[in-house]
Amino acid sequence: MTTMKLPLTESTAWKALLDHKKSIGGQHLRELFSDDPGRGERMTLEALGLFLDYSKNRITDETLRLLVELAKESGLKDRIDAMFNGEKINVTEKRAVLHVALRAPKGATILFEGKNVVPQVHEVLDRMTAFSNRVRSGEWKGHTGKSIRNIVNIGIGGSDLGPVMAYEALRFYSERSLTFRFVSNVDGIDFAEAVLDLNPEETMFIVSSKTFTTMETMTNAQTAREWLLKSLGGNSAAVAKHFVAVSTNAQKVSEFGIDTANMFGFWDWVGGRYSMDSAIGLSTMLAVGPENFLAMLNGFHEMDEHFRNAPFESNFPVLMGLLALWYNNFFDAQTIAVLPYENYLKRFPAYLQQLTMESNGKQVTVDGKEVNYHTGQIYWGEPGTNGQHSFYQLIHQGTRLIPCDFIVFANPLIPLGRHHDILLANAFAQAEALAFGKTAEEVKADGTAEWLVPHRVFNGNRPSNMILADRLTPDILGKLIALYEHSTYTQSVIWNIDAFDQWGVELGKVLAQQIIPEIENEEIPQLKHDTSTNNLIRLTRKMKK
Ligand code: G6Q
Fold this sequence. Notes:
This protein has helices at residues 12-24, 29-34, 39-42, 61-73, 76-84, 118-137, 161-169, 188-195, 215-231, 238-242, 250-256, 282-309, 316-330, 348-360, 392-397, 419-436, 440-445, 453-456, 474-495, 506-520, 531-543; strands spanning 44-47, 50-53, 111-112, 115-116, 150-154, 179-183, 203-208, 243-247, 263-265, 335-341, 378-380, 404-409, 464-469. The chain is α/β, with parallel strands linked by helices. The radius of gyration is 25 Å and the shape is globular. The model has no long low-confidence stretch (mean pLDDT 97).
């Protein structure tokens, strides 16, 4: 499967990067900028309405050349083609990975097992459109004849994080007369609070689950069914008017009592964390309308084409992937902070956590060999400027290197006095402070007492990317998501890992199934866990009312 001729750490490009790191790793961004007056303008990339300033990275032109060499030696071009050609690049699950087909325009051809999948994608999009229009216009009536005013998406993981993030991100474009809620956690509080102020007669549930077997989602869906029927007189005919499903499992959907006419399908070749642009995005379409949803898909598609065609040197996702990998593997950086200076993107870091960490948190290569280098970074972040008053301290003066991705927009969606100028100034100031810092001499020159000087020094040399766009639109959101999807894939190809499986989530699920009856059943269980787990189960059984 792998196209690498040598193990990664023995490849020519990897070794060249190790040597190169020794020679430039100690160089300060202050020097890099003063030695190269054109740097701030040259180390930028503009494409598809997105502008990337990557000049505040600890790199030279030579670093980039070597990183691109690494991508080439890793066979990245072939692996990109393999994805677009519907090859089963998810090797451990023997699945194709064709989320790019979800946003291909009508008339395009993307083959899976010899069959063009694009027409099926558009057939579902057309059904979603017709359905959304009926609900949004009030034409769709609930069991008692009232229009739907509340939409509750029930799903978890890939069937929740994308919809939540997109709803928040595109809230400006959303239909404000509709209320949206998202229930994911098996903690009953999530459901209870979500429906507390909702009238069941006006509420529709979208049960979003690829498999329709996920414990959390099925538990919540069952509770939703009971909640609805309790107040609508127990007539199960009401389910058809208040429940729709998004799934690949028609049989389970109809067993639940949802009319498969109200089921929106997707396919085995769509991974959960890559599914927000499939029917899993039904809540997004209901919120922002079909036109905006399609504009978002178009944004995704433009980034797909750019990823497939642009030379690596000027390829947004490839470049961002290579920079992330540079710090991960050559500076031992463990994390990347994603810092959107746009409140609507407040759930974007959480979304990226699943995308990047479930994809690239892997310990073996595609052929099952243990890796001898670090793979996926820890992604985290909060919207600016909140983080500045909290964890930025550690990014500025802590002992760890934390590369940052700032995301900013030149224009606000809701202009309000001086707010946006202040917001932008803060983003640029943080990146400047991180890169250039403040020396002891500069601190002293401010008249700072000698003993306080070390506390007030900023070493700087802390790298960041600045991603800038005009304003947050559905199209730009699609581009941003596709950018991180493909940057994640780029890194996985170089690390030679399977970015599309997630075996690491299995063990806990299996153990939970064993423990549920041990907590729940009346009879005292014969516990066969370790002494700690046994003790915790006994203790909670005693404490439980
Ligand atoms: C994502 C994962 C996972 C999945 C959830 C929900 O890539 O596969 O997060 O999305 O476990 O699964 P269902 O959609 O099948 O309920």
